[in-house]
Amino acid sequence: MHSPVFPQVLTGAVMTKGLRVTDLRLNVSATGDDIVDEVRISIEPGKVLALVGESGSGKTTVGLAVLGHSRRGVTIAHGRVECADTEVLGLDDDAKRKIRGELVSYVPQDPASSLNPALRIGVQLMEALEVHDFGGSVESRKVRLKQMMEEVLLPTDDEYLLRYPHQLSGGQQQRVGLAMAFACRPSVIVLDEPTTGLDVSTQEHVLKTIRQLTRDHGVAALYITHDLAVVADLADDVAVMYAGRIVECGSVKDIFTNAAHPYTKHLVIAAPDIEGKKEIVGLAGRAPSPGKRPTGCSFALRCESADDACRSVFPAEVSVATGHVTRCIKIGKLPNVVVVKPRASQTIESGASVVVLQDVSAGYSGKVVVHNVSLSIRRGECLALVGESGSGKTTVSRAIGGLHREWTGSMSFNGAELQKTARRRTSGARQGIQYIFQNPYGSLNPRRTIGESISRPLAIIGTSKSESRKAVLDVLEKVNLPGSYAGKYPDQLSGGERQRVAIARALVSNPVVLVCDEVTSALDVLVQAAIIDLLGDLRKQLGLAMLFVTHNLPLVRSIADEVAVMSEGRIVEVGPAESVIGNPQQAYTKSLIMATPSIERSMR
Fold this sequence. Notes:
Blueprint: H1 7-10, E1 19-28, E2 34-43, E3 48-52, H2 59-66, E4 74-83, E5 86-87, H3 93-99, E6 104-107, H4 121-130, H5 138-151, H6 158-161, H7 170-182, E7 188-192, H8 200-216, E8 220-224, H9 228-234, E9 237-242, E10 245-251, H10 252-257, H11 262-270, H12 308-312, E11 318-321, E12 324-326, E13 353-364, E14 367-378, E15 382-387, H13 393-400, E16 407-413, E17 416-417, H14 427-432, E18 433-436, H15 450-460, H16 465-478, H17 495-507, E19 513-517, H18 525-542, E20 545-550, H19 553-559, E21 562-567, E22 570-576, H20 577-582, H21 587-595, H22 599-603
Parallel strand pairs: 3-8, 3-9, 6-7, 7-8, 15-20, 15-21, 18-19, 19-20
Antiparallel strand pairs: 1-2, 1-4, 4-5, 9-10, 10-12, 11-12, 13-14, 13-16, 16-17, 21-22
Helix pairs in contact: 4-5, 4-7, 7-8, 8-21, 15-16, 15-17, 16-17, 17-18
């Protein structure tokens, strides 16, 4: 397989299709600081190149540039983007609009945002064909519309096409988005984290669809993601970005079995795997942002092996093997800079039950969606609640947190019956059970400083200002953030830092139970590993009980003692994490595990 970045390959035989990006640079318009620079990638028809790296590394910026687009405040400084022999960046605005969807398509991360909520899906799919006059006639477009639905494994009947986006599940919305992207048979498609919010079963269907359409129709696919297990399962080649530059590129096997750059090694080690043979390890610090990047290697600030030579000039490309290149001057001079810790065995050292559910059923507007759930969470224990989207996980967790009132059955905290809503519960119960939300960007008030947000629970219970200030500084230290962050606003923090603040806000009232609702789903693997490390440490130090709601099964083995599996509102299997994930007894649990991408499995 040819190298996706070797300059000599890029200047060789001309591709008749596919994607070629050469020497791409985008700047902050106001300052001229580079956001991405020296980006060179090449993707053959029918192949998938995964672009991976931390949030903020420039992946989406590159993906949008392939369409000749840049966000407001960003300028494409120079470079070439060739889609099927068409140089995209040199086109005028009208020509760029014409090729989008016809020559190169884009699938965004959020399926709901890519569809117009006011239009039926049949109308939106037909629009994608009409805009480019695909087929030349109404009849041929109707035939193509049915083909599009078949290609993404959705019903082709008129009743389905008359539905609105809100009447579809997340997976169905994403497949409609894929159908629109592949509608006019483009040569290149950019997929920007299209499965991030999907459960493993839905993700499996979407990935199969992408793989099939890409290969059947000779489409060059740029797949932007931070899910390395998906990369191992789907991609042919991988390009690793750090601080706006590609630092390593090679085949999937090269990256996962012979990673050369220390940053790539950290990424691979931070990725949880369903087979659970290693403990995930985080990485301290964060990548430098545009305008704050050093002269030399940007990773030197976080690298265990960096020296003065690394800090003096940015490394040139080094060939590791045929088709495998990296940008690090230490290649071949040092042993592995990262040592994988063997995965620690799970031992339950828990106390009495602090939260007990007995025959809890819950619903919405009289429709029951959770049926007769019985669970107990013990002090010091982490119970993972897993299952597909719509299985009832969040409904159960919100009922425990007092955020969902429509439930029946019995629920107790420290032996005392819990009222249905947080407002009607005792102050001890409200303080004792704290909820951490999924979205780190939406869970903090943008007009309050970090200190004000964290101290808000204390103000409600009448804590003095001096005691609140001390408590804020103490809890920031617990979540490994400096005290100076108390004066910052949410927009000055990264996603991982915001999630730490959300955890700090939950901890400030000294809870007994933390309810964590998909708290890592929006985070890249390094930040995710750091958050999991933090939660594990807090559990040991404070003896917290945790309910960890997730559809990320590989993560369960890294954090949970017990696992409860939900399907269609019912608990279908419960037991120790090692037993349930390693040796499932129920067919549903087995199907979830088989649908979960695995780096270990893919490498075999």
